[in-house]
Write a structure and sequence with these properties.
337 residues, alpha/beta, Rossmann fold, binds UDP-4-deoxy-4-formamido-beta-L-arabinopyranose, carbohydrate metabolism
Length: 337
Amino acid sequence: MILVTGGAGFIGSHLCLEMLNEGHDVIVVDHLFSTKKESLNRVEEITGKTLTFYRFNLLDRSKLEQVFKNHSIEAVVHLAGFKAVSESVSLPLSYYNNNLNATLVLLEVMSHFNVKNFIFSSSATVYGKPTSNPITEDFPTSAINPYGRTKLMIEEILHDVWTSDLTWNISILRYFNPIGAHPSGKIGESPNGIPNNLMPFITDVAMGQYKELVVFGDNYPTIDGTGVRDYIHVVDLARGHLKALEKITVEKGYNIYNLGTGEGYSVLQLVQAFEESTGIPIPYKIMARRPGDIAECYSDPTKAENQLGWRAEKTIYDMCKDSWRWRQDNPEGYTSF
Ligand code: WQD
C-alpha cells in the first residue's frame, strides 16, 4: 500500500487517480484544510476503484501510528503542506509548524515502522533567483520566502536522515509550475478565494469573474518583458511520481529530480495559448512587478528522463483546454455536501 499525505489536494487527487489506474492500493491522510473530500469521491468515480481515506492532521502522531499499524505501507508520497508564497510571508510560524513539524512526525513514525521509501513534493522555488536557465538539479539553492525555506529545510532534513541510515530511499521531486486538470473535467485546482497563481486567474477572467488579468510587470529581461515559467500539466506531474515510485528501489538512496517540461512560457504567451485553445479573449493590463517574483525559471528535465524514464507529454494547449474545462464545469470548485 502507498500512503499519500495531502492526497485530496490539487496535485494529490491527480496522483491518487493515476495510482489507482496503475493498480496501486492507496491510503490518503488529509486534514482537508484547503480542499474537500469531494475531490477523492470524484477520483473513485472516474477510476471505478476505491481508496482508504483518513481525515486528520499529520501532527497527530497517535492517529498516524494507527494508520501504520492497520496497513502494511511500502512507501509514502508526502504532498501535505501549505503552499501559498505570499501567505507564508505573513504567517511564517504556521508554515514552519505545518510544513516542518508535520514532516518530522511523519519521518519518525515511518522510521519506527521501518518504512523507508519516501517521495517528497518539493518545488522549483528552492532555486531562488537562478543565474541562468534551463535549471539542472545541481544548481545552487536558496530560499526567498518562508514557504521556499520550508521546502529547502525539508530537503536538507531528508539528506541528514539518509546520511544517518543509508537504507532510506528518498526521491525529491522539484515541481515547476503545475497547471491544467484531468481531461474528465471532474477534478482540478479548487479556487480558495482570490487566486495567487496565473492560470486560475486567467480562468477567472474567462469566467467573467474579473474584467481583466493583471500582468505583474513587462520590464523583465525576457522574450516579451513578462515573467517566464515552466508550466507542466498536473497529469504529467502525477505520472512523474509513479515513475519515481517505480524506480525508488532501483535508483536507491537520496535523489533529486526536476519535474518540468524544459520549456518556458511568458505570461503573455500563456494568455495567447489560452485564447487560441478556447477562443476566449483575455483582456489584461500591465501593472507593477509583484514583490519576490523572478524573471525567468524553467527546467532541464533530462535527469528525470534518463533515470526515471519520464518526460512530460502534454502541450501548453492541453494545459489551457483542461484548465478551462475544469473551471467551466465547476464554477464553485468542489461543492461540499
Ligand atoms: C507565474 C507568473 C507572475 C498571477 C508559485 C510559487 C511556486 C509554485 C507555483 C508551489 C509570474 C505572473 C501571476 C497574476 C501575473 N507553488 N502573474 N498575474 O510565482 O512562478 O510560482 O506558484 O509550489 O512555489 O512560487 O507562479 O502562477 O503565481 O506566477 O502576471 O495574476 O505569472 O508574475 O511571472 P510562480 P504564479
